[in-house]
Amino acid sequence: METRRTDKRDATSGELDDVLSHAARHFDGEVLRATGWWWLYLLLGLASVVLGVAALASRISAVGTLVAVLSVFLIYTGLLEIGFAATIRRDTWLGVLAGVASVAAGVVALAWPGITLLVLAVFVGASLIGWGIYRIYLSFTDPLLKPRAVTLVEGIAVTALGVLALAWPNISILVLAVLVGVFFVVFGIFSFVGSLQMLDLHHALKKGEDDVYGDTKGNIDVSEIHHAA
């Protein structure tokens, strides 16, 4: 009787190991494919920094020019976020929603006839706060964003810029342009850093895969992923 119980426990343990092994292989493959998009995140960071420096250096003084710059950025980042949501983000629906909202905000700003400085300030503030809160959320939920503190600081900084845009008394176009430019630079730097973290994780996963399975297509254990991250 005792032997049968032992055999049953061994069989159950074996089935559980098979299930966990399958889940680990699936998770490994998903992470490896996701981190392979690090270069897209890198391009986003570089483009954002260039746009931010250009906005700060040009001393934008026309509402229409600032609207155009901000709208292009919102549309661009929105489209990329949709792409990230489909390949990287754990909460795909939320990433798609954030991307669509960003694209919609950019289109609305471009299409708004004779937008005033006050409306633009509210628009900028709301957009920055939205992005900031989203980044803060990702810092706690996205397993690929390591170290989490970097994304968290980015989210807090962007949110603070949005609050400044809304709270600044009698804000001028120059001040608003500076806030937008600083946002571009901050967002770009953190995106650049994040892309390098993704690249390091991707290389660690590939190395672990090769060490365990050689040149054949395989996956490493979940514990190694956490160690590499």
Describe the protein in words.
The protein has 229 residues and is mainly α. It has one domain (51-228). It has 8 helices and no strands. The chain has helices spanning 2-35, 38-57, 63-87, 92-111, 117-141, 148-167, 173-213, 222-228. α3 (63-87) packs antiparallel against α4 and α6 (148-167) packs antiparallel against α7. The longest helix is centred in the last third of the chain and has 41 residues, at 173-213.
Describe the protein's topology.
Layout: H1 2-35, H2 38-57, H3 63-87, H4 92-111, H5 117-141, H6 148-167, H7 173-213, H8 222-228
Average pLDDT taken over every residue:
78
Which secondary-structure class do the elements indicate? mainly alpha
**Taking Cα atoms only, what radius of gyration do you get, to the nearest Å?**
23 Å
SSE run: HHHHHHHH
User: Any idea what the shape is?
Assistant: elongated
Head-to-tail CA distance between termini: 46 Å
The tally of domains stands at 1
Beta-strand content bin:
under 5%
Give a count of the beta strands, DSSP E runs of length 2 or more: 0
